[in-house]
Task: inverse folding
């Protein structure tokens, strides 16, 4: 049940939620980068390699928690934490208890609360999707937010709180339901979180921790939700036909908006795709 003497807070029990390592993406060639100048191609390669390395490193952050038993926080702790996060270019921060229903089956999570972090992907790059310019930006944020998430997790651990990093490229729990529970946005029809600040143009990560968290701020997303419900551009124009007209709702609240196999194939066929980020109307208006 434990890893090196560290007891997990939760073990995923939702059989409808299985983590699948995206092996296809780990073996992708750098084809689009070949048409770029040498320095830009090297940058793309750096972000790709950094993303995959960070993903692996994040799975090791559970270690070093053996003596971390604190839960209480000082009155100014979260103010200092958020200041540090903002200095590291985190754009969105909020908090919510971990929802056990959204932990991948059989995976162990360390920490009862979730710190949800979001980082913007710049519109001037995203509007070039599909293609290398967009995907350099996508993987830049994967790498940078991943590195920052690990750094902030170590900060939490240094202050005595059991904490674990969940990388934006893939964590042990679903980010979407936690981001909506933290009042950072709505779940769009394409399965992406739509925020008032950036539309779908952010990547998410989570730090799970035993530190007591602040109360989540209430926000009104009714206009955004009404617009998304009536729009449907992502359903009509997905290049891989991967966005479902009617989402599939499974037990324990898991909702599938995307046909994963079609989405992966579109990524492989369409220069890393990401067209859903471009076509979503709020993306260019936020």
Result:
């Amino acid at each position: 049940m434990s890893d090196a003497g560290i007891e997990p807070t939760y073990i995923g029990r939702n059989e409808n939620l299985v983590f699948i390592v995206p092996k296809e993406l780990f073996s992708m060639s750098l084809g689009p980068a070949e048409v770029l100048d040498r320095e830009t191609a090297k940058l793309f390669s750096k972000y790709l390699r950094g993303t995959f390395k960070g993903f692996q490193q994040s799975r090791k952050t559970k270690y070093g928690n053996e003596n971390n038993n604190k839960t209480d926080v000082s009155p100014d702790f979260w103010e200092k934490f958020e200041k540090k996060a903002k200095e590291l270019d985190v754009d969105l921060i909020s908090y919510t208890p971990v929802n056990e229903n959204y932990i991948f089956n059989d995976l162990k999570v360390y920490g009862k609360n979730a710190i949800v972090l979001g980082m913007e992907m710049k519109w001037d790059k995203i509007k070039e999707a599909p293609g290398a310019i967009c995907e350099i930006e996508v993987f830049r944020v994967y790498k940078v937010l991943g590195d920052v998430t690990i750094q902030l997790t170590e900060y939490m651990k240094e202050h005595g709180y059991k904490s674990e990093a969940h990388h934006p490229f893939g964590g042990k729990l679903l980010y979407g339901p936690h981001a909506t529970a933290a009042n950072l946005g709505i779940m769009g029809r394409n399965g992406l979180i739509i925020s008032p600040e950036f539309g779908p143009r952010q990547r998410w990560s989570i730090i799970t921790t035993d530190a007591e968290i602040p109360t989540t701020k209430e926000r009104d997303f009714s206009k955004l939700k009404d617009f998304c419900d009536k729009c449907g551009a992502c359903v009509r124009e997905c290049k891989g036909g991967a966005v479902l007209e009617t989402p599939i709702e499974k037990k324990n609240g898991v909702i599938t908006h995307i046909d994963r196999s079609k989405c992966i194939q579109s990524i492989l066929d369409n220069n890393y795709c990401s067209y859903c980020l471009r076509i979503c109307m709020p993306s260019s208006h936020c």
The radius of gyration is 19 Å. Residues 132-158 form the longest helix (27 residues).
